[in-house]
């Protein structure tokens, strides 16, 4: 049984708030990361979760570098 797709707007909003990043930046990063993961995936159930985690981690890492 596959996992339900998360609401992309909610995912983007959540990451934007957590990382203090504009939603359009997060949206582009999420879409690009999701496309990359889907291109390489054999199992798609958790791809949206992995994409969100990668974007969140990249933005947090960039934020820590600035300080």
Automatic annotation (TrEMBL):
InterPro entries: DUF3562. Pfam families: DUF3562. It comes from the Bacteria. NCBIfam families: MSMEG_6209_Nter. This is DUF3562 domain-containing protein. It comes from Paraburkholderia antibiotica.
